[in-house]
Specification:
This protein is of the alpha+beta class. Strands 2-1-5-4-3 form a five-stranded antiparallel beta sheet, sandwiched between helices. Helix 2 runs antiparallel to helix 3.
């Protein structure tokens, strides 16, 4: 199950972070998302082959004892990070979730009233992310 979803901007600034589990330790998830950015940068450096179309889905960024952190990066270097409490989720299901999040992000940032690089405060975006997370929850 997805316990945290985050969108991180081009300059590694948090644009959106939402927890989907009751937790008093919100800072722990902020730290996990921030720490995962090092793994994103490392994976990006290792994938650079001339003429190769880069895969947006980065896969497992790093595991912790309780959680697994997965990543996705857009062509504009906006990063999506999901923290899961599952041991081994299906990659195809996670790729679908990331693509849905990416589409939702494109929709909200296409709004002429949104200023790029600022935190996403759209209620519609937050509700859309919650709906995507619920759809991924095990039955």
């Amino acid at each position: 199950m997805i316990v945290c979803a985050a969108v991180v901007g081009q300059q590694n600034n948090p644009l959106f972070i939402r927890l989907f589990t009751p937790s008093d330790d919100e800072v722990k998830f902020h730290y996990m998302v921030h720490a995962s950015l090092d793994a994103v940068e490392e994976k990006m450096l290792l994938r650079r082959n001339p003429g190769e179309v880069p895969e947006l889905y980065l896969g497992l960024l790093y595991p912790t004892e309780e959680y697994r952190v997965y990543g996705y990066i857009t062509n504009t270097h906006v990063k999506f990070v999901l923290v899961l409490d599952e041991i081994s989720p299906r990659d195809d299901a996670l790729q679908k979730v990331f693509k849905l999040l990416h589409n939702l992000f494109v929709d909200v940032t296409s709004n002429p009233l949104y200023t790029h690089g600022l935190p996403i405060t759209s209620k519609a975006f937050a509700e859309g992310v919650a709906a995507i997370v619920r759809s991924h929850a095990p039955a």
